[in-house]
């Protein structure tokens, strides 16, 4: 039996100048999965397919164990989706009218949560949506989504345009949402701090491909920077090393610190210093490796 909240197998989508996939991924319930990757790597395309905004050319997508063809309304009522584009309201609606629509459409809508969020995110229900600033529209989209009380949150760069004060509230709300352990969040972000604070798993994407999907803590344990005195470290052909930088000391970046340190010990070399590697640097090396057609992504 498949317990994944999200399951993609062999998913492919081709546009004129972009090919997504083949993409395979299973996401278990109760986790925050952060999707990171440069512009145009396919994060929004993936989320559009998860929301059935676009259909894949090939492959299978299951959400809560079902395909959209079986139960589209049932699936969508359990998902809170903040799209990448700013919330656009062409009509002359006020916030409270938009909320009424959501209340009607989502049976799990919580009026108490909505009131609490409007207060916290300083949204005036009487304000006209089209007159809101970009950041205020973003706040609205997020609050409407959370008040739906969904089981799965799909957030496409939700903090884009938010001020740092409200950003903190958003982080707290997402952490709060995860508190009971049965909810799931997918978040696409360019903000490493969001990954650091929220993510249990990190999905690295590049050029329509999933380079790596791994538990964040495992990733941070495996990737390290090591400093050694030995010059010309490349000649040692150390396992796991993806970069070596020559200075007063040699700085090695490894994706497999255990294997690298073992090989260093075998060569009688001691690492003088060991440090964590930032997620953006890991992504940089994964992309470089993917361009070389290599295996640094370590899937
Ligand atoms: N409807 C479409 N028609 C043609 N090309 C498309 C369409 N939708 C997306 N693309 C292309 O797919 C590629 C991936 O875009 P996508 O928006 O998924 O990337 P992203 O990772 O979300 O980028 P960003 O970080 O900039 O938001 C881009 O090259 C884009 O031009």
TrEMBL record:
UniProt keyword terms in alphabetical order: ATP-binding, Nucleotide-binding, Transport
PANTHER family: ABC TRANSPORTER ATP-BINDING COMPONENT, ABC TRANSPORTER ATP-BINDING PROTEIN ALBC-RELATED
GO molecular function: ATP binding; ATP hydrolysis activity
Name this polypeptide is given: ABC transporter ATP-binding protein
Domain ABC transporter intervals: 3-232
Recorded coiled-coil stretches: none
SUPFAM superfamilies hit by this protein: P-loop containing nucleoside triphosphate hydrolases (SSF52540)
């Amino acid at each position: 039996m498949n317990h994944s909240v999200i399951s993609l197998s062999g998913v492919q989508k081709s546009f004129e100048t972009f090919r997504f996939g083949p993409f395979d991924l299973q996401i278990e319930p109760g986790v925050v999965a952060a999707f990171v990757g440069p512009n145009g790597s396919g994060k929004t395309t993936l989320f559009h397919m998860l929301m059935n905004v676009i259909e894949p050319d090939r492959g299978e997508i299951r959400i809560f164990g079902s395909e959209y063809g079986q139960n589209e309304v049932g699936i969508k009522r359990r998902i809170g989706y903040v799209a990448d584009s700013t919330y656009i309201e062409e009509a002359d609606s006020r916030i409270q009218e938009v909320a009424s629509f959501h209340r009607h459409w989502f049976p799990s809508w919580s009026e108490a949560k909505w009131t609490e969020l409007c207060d916290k995110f300083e949204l005036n229900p009487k304000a006209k949506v089209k007159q809101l600033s970009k950041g205020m529209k973003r706040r609205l989209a997020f609050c409407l989504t959370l008040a739906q009380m969904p089981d799965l949150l799909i957030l496409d760069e939700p903090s884009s345009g938010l001020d740092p004060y409200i950003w903190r509230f958003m982080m707290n709300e997402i952490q709060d949402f995860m508190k009971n352990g049965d909810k799931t969040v997918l978040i696409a972000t360019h903000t490493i701090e969001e990954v650091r604070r929220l993510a249990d798993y990190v999905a690295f994407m590049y050029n329509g491909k999933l380079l790596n999907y791994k538990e964040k803590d495992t990733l941070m344990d495996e990737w390290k920077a090591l400093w050694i005195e030995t010059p010309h470290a490349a000649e040692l052909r150390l396992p796991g090393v993806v970069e070596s930088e020559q200075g007063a000391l040699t700085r090695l970046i490894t994706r497999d610190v255990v294997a690298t340190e073992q090989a260093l010990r075998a060569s009688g070399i001691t690492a003088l210093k060991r440090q964590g590697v930032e997620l953006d640097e890991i992504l940089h090396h994964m992309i470089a490796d993917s361009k070389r057609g290599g295996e640094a992504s370590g899937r």
